[in-house]
Amino acid sequence: AQLQTQFVMLEVIKNNLPAHELFLKFDFREIGELLILRRSPLVPPLNPIVADAQRLDRLDALVLVGHDRGTQPWTNQSESLVNAQEVSGMRLTLADGSRGWLVYQRQKFLLTRFAFKTEVGDPAEVAYALLSHLHYQYPRLDTQIENIQINDPHLPAFYKMGYIESFRRIEMWRGTPPAGLNMNLS
To answer: What mean pLDDT is predicted for residues 43-61?
Structure first.
């Protein structure tokens, strides 16, 4: 029996021209560009930004990522995080009323799989406050996050916190996306 798929999505490392051209030949089209970022544990943590920060256990963190966050790369979708171990999170409110949350996976030596949402306020400021608390809490852990969209409004906070770009991926798709899927074309 032949598998019937109507929509296929993939990622190709940017500047991998042979693979990129092959996918274009098979009618894939580009829908976005993703960043892979790293922060070394050698970057000294700053004191956390003054805020009301609350740690979230796995169940509370998974409830948050289950809410509508727009189209996300597969690594950051709620279904991927549900299947990951050691997922937890943080909710934070700043003095000016800005607030948001961060869900992440903590492995033995690594923080990874970040999902952010700013509910009120400037996303870069909220993300910076969240990251300051996270890295203060886990100063000795390496951090690698994948598939941050290049137009993500939280991105300036990563650079301000000492993250560096490892490489980029190009997100591509072929076929008819399911109804209601919001494609973030860059």
So the answer is: 89
